[in-house]
# Entry
Amino acid sequence: MKNIFIITIISLALFIYGCGNNASSSHDLHNHESIENHEGHDHNEHLESESHENHDHNHESDLHAAENGVHNETDHAGEIIFTQKQAALSDFQLFEVKPEIFHEVITASGQIMAAQGDEMAIVAPASGIISFGAKKISEGVAVTKGENLFYISSKNIAEGDYYTRNRAAYEQAKKAYERAEKLIVDKLISHSEFEQAKFNFEQAKTAYEAIANDNSDKGINAKASISGFIKSIDVSDGQYVDVGQMLGVVSQNRRLILKTEVSQKYYNDLRSISTANFKIPYNNELYSLKDLNGRLLSIGKASDANSAFIPVTFEFDNKGNIPQGIFVEIYLISSPVNNAIVIPLTALVEEQGSYYVYIQIDAEGYMKREVKLGANDGQNVRILSGLQAGETIVSKGAQLVRAAAASGTIPHGHSHSH
# Structure
């Protein structure tokens, strides 16, 4: 019994000792974890501090880059890169927008014609079969005054040779007139009979002398009466012609007429018109009457009763070998407009009925911008909105910039420095 009691006392003591050691170990573990968490907290704060310092450093770098004019790609959304190397390979040009004096413009269509007295018709001096001269003639060929262009022969036709018939008629009329002169002195014929003989002689003489110096083995010559070029040929080789029939036209082409007709709604604006530009459709070349010694001839006071248009006519020197008879697009220059924003027409790019220009934003960067157009004079156009003075745009090569925008590529190492 005594032994059982002693064993119980020892077991109880061991149990109490073991519980104390476990509590101490748990406390030490808790303290150790608290220390580690605290140290970890300090370490995280240190990392956050370093991150904040790095952020401040990056922010200062960004500010430094901005001060030196270097920007990220996001600074110019939609920017188009067109390098200076690309520009050097074409006729690329820039244009600085400045306010200037422009003029209101009335657009119309018209025609180029010969000035009065600047061309002469070639007519047949005799009736007969026509053949072309020794020189091969055609429209546009240059000719000189007195040059033979056609032969007219009547040797093989029923009426007989025209020259021979006219010479015979002249000689007969001359003899009759000389006889009448003697008879009238002795009053053997009446005064009216004498006058009739004189009239017949003068007519025969005129007809004969008109061809006397132009007769040849090939027939009677038809010559150019002025120097110039052959504007038209109205007959063909081997054709029969009557005396007085038109064979062709020779034009000096030195002065030309520009004629157009303008709608009556512009009647009040016509008083301000002083000059005009015109464009030839087949080569799209623009001509200015100021450069061609042009002048306004007339503005119709009222339109024709059967027309809703008013005629406007100019005269100018043909310095550019401008052909007659062609139809042209005309820009009538009217009243001035001060402080207008004006750019070359070549700067415009059209997309689905809207018009755009490319603005330069740095040495190799451009932005597309829509503009609203006013009148144009065939060379320049007035901008109503979309541009401001001082901006620089692409005036030549806009299509190249447009192609660069379509490619969507940015050259490696490009910086947006101003």
